[in-house]
Amino acid sequence: MATNTSDPKIAEFRELLSKARSVLVLTGAGISAESGVPTFRGEGGLWRQFNATDLATPSAFARSTSLVWEFYHYRRELVRTKEPNKGHLALVEAEERFEKEGKHFFILTQNIDGLHRRAGSRNLLEIHVRCTSCGFIEENNDSPICEALRNRGLPNETAAEIPLKDLPSCRQCGSLVRPHVVWFEECLWPDVLKKINEEIAQCDLFLVVGTSGIVYPAAGYASVVAARKVPVAEVNIEKTPATSTSTFYFEGPSGELLPVLLAPIKNDAPSNKTLPLKTKTRK
Ligand code: BJW
Ligand code: ZN
Asked: Per the annotation, does 178 bind a ligand?
């Protein structure tokens, strides 16, 4: 169904947005899909024969350190070549506008591709490696991160294991470092959890963009917010478990939808933009 900013559901959402005092946005891998970053699930989600649950775990890192580092090296190098898309940029513009109006706009991302930060969004935790021995955390933008990983990690080839001593090491104590991300079976850091809970408790509009909604704890946030009777809007190219509890479901690519959904209501709204989009509102 073709639609634009005068589509009733989009207009209703935009009206709510214009009145909101505290907007929380949860983004997942889908927001970066139009930048060319593969999502975890679906097409392009597998790396070699593995999926995220096989490799993004402390036990996989302990057992197959070289393999897990190859996986992260591949993704790390890939995202360096990608640029933020119109969805990331629409969020930056909305954040700036809200701040100017003395209102609150916060992005909670599950992504580690850095594209929100590169687009200009603030309030993002961007830390890259952590020492497995002394715990030192370092932002590391080296390419490759170590010589042994140069030209490694290609999805279609299997290579010899890299000895631990040649994998990325701590600049403080020389021990092995790991990606500083939350793996399966690990809890989010307490300070991050505290901030998330504050944002969830205070938001008066929740926008969920490009996440499959199956990995907890993030998968539970839409229903927690909906239980407070706060409107939840979902943007996704397909339905997810969150769709049934969402007030609005906007079906389509976030790079096309977010600029329309988040555009200012007065003057410069792109009101004649036409999109291939299906919308529905749930009561
Ligand atoms: C578009 C689009 C476009 C495409 N426009 N949209 C059994 C039952 C319930 C829970 C568990 C269980 N067993 C274990 C658990 C807990 C586990 C979990 O939830 N597992 C599930 C698989 C069931 N969770 C955890 O372990 C978490 N920790 C925890 O719970 O601690 C307590 C605990 C301690 C000890 C034991 C057990 C529990 C931690 C989870 C950490 C997840 N980390 C990862 C990897 C991060 C590092 C890395 O990047 O490598 O985070 S997993 C991976 O999934 C990544 C993502 O952030 C996360 C979510 O994925 P996301 O972003 O939603 O991407 P996709 O690919 O799934 O979806 C893309 C979406 O975009 C799709 O919907 C598309 O349609 C859409 N899309 N193009 C708009 N253009
Ligand atoms: Zn160290």
From this structure: no
